[in-house]
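Entry type: protein chain
Record version: 2
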Amino acid sequence: MKKRIGSVAVVVDKREKVSDQINKILSKNAECIIGRMGIPSAEHGLSMISLIVEGTPDQIGAITGQLGNLPGVNLKSALTAVEVE
C-alpha cells in the first residue's frame, strides 16, 4: 500500500490527564509524523495539536484510532490523494 500525505487536528480537554499517553502514542509512531505543533489555550482550557503525517491509510488510521480512544481527545484527520514512495 502506498503512503499518503495528510493532516490530523487534535483538541485535548484536561491535558494533564492524558498528555503522557498522547506523547507515548506520538513517539511510538514518530516515523509517520513529519511535523507537530502544539498550542495551549488557557482561555478555553484546551490544548490543540496539529500533525502533518505521511503513511499508509492503515498507519494513519492506527494513530488516529489510538488518540481518539483517549478520554477528552477529539480529532479530525484528512489524507490527500497524493501518494509518495
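Comment: The chain has two helices and four strands.
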